[in-house]
């Protein structure tokens, strides 16, 4: 039993370190992308920057409740799931507004910042990959990281299409794609968190 407790403590310590690294990387990339999105006039970069901000808060909450009971972690997951849902709705509304303005984003800055963000998120995905299974909190952390990498790749692709077509439609489409990822992930997280709160699911506290 003592050996099992020691192993559990070691795994929790590794997960805490991984969360801290992910938090710092995402916080820095939020600053880079929010400035870049304003300069480039890109709604997909704006959506991705807000995603970085949401993930930074996500990792912070996960660190705070890491050693708490499953029920407490599930309640935190409900909050994070709700936040992701609001983020998705905000991005959708912003995309409609940008479509109405009809401005062409700077595809050079989009591709450059998108590539930097992709590399940062691939690093985070690599750090968190072994912690992708577990309770709703661990699920939410993994889903956020995975979605970010997908969103970054989509931003780079959008920049290329904007360059070829001289149209902002690709930028708008990618923003909607990022919004869809956020809303889809939020539904999954909220569903599992509710099951945990109702005692209908048993998940390990670490991977």
Question: Key features?
Answer:
single chain; 207 residues; mainly alpha; Alpha-lytic protease prodomain-like; disordered C terminus; membrane; Cation transporter; CDF/SLC30A; zinc ion transmembrane transporter activity
Output mean pLDDT: 76
Shape: globular
CATH class: Mainly Alpha
The low-confidence runs, each spanning 5 or more residues with pLDDT under 50, are 1-10, 202-207
Q: Which sheet architecture does the biggest sheet show?
A: none
Organism: Pelistega ratti
Protein name: Cation transporter
Domain Cation efflux protein transmembrane: 19-196
Pfam family, one: Cation_efflux
Write up this protein.
The chain is mostly helical and 207 residues long. It has six helices and no strands. The chain has helices spanning 2-40, 43-64, 70-101, 107-128, 136-165, 169-197. The chain is globular, with a radius of gyration of 18 Å. It has a single domain, classed as Up-down Bundle (Alpha-lytic protease prodomain-like). The chain starts with a helix and ends in a 10-residue tail after the last helix. Helix 1 runs antiparallel to helix 4, helix 2 (43-64) runs antiparallel to helix 3 (70-101) and helix 4 (107-128) runs antiparallel to helix 5 (136-165).
């Amino acid at each position: 039993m003592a050996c099992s407790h020691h192993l559990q403590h070691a795994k929790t310590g590794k997960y805490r370190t991984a969360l801290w690294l992910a938090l710092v990387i995402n916080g820095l990339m939020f600053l880079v992308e929010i400035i870049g999105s304003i300069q480039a006039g890109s709604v997909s970069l704006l959506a991705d920057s807000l995603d970085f901000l949401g993930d930074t808060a996500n990792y912070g909450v996960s660190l705070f409740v890491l050693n708490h009971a499953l029920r407490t972690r599930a309640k935190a997951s409900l909050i994070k799931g709700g936040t992701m849902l609001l983020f998705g709705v905000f991005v959708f509304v912003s995309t409609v507004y940008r479509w109405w303005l009809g401005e062409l984003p700077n595809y050079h800055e989009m591709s450059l910042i998108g590539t930097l963000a992709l590399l940062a998120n691939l690093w985070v995905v690599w750090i968190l990959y072994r912690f992708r299974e577990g309770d709703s909190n661990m699920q939410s952390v993994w889903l956020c990281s995975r979605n970010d990498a997908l969103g970054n790749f989509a931003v780079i692709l959008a920049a290329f299409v904007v360059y070829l077509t001289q149209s902002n439609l690709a930028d708008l489409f990618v923003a909607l794609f990022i919004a869809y990822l956020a809303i889809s992930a939020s539904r999954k997280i909220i569903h599992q968190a509710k099951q945990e709160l109702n005692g209908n699911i048993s998940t390990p506290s670490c991977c």
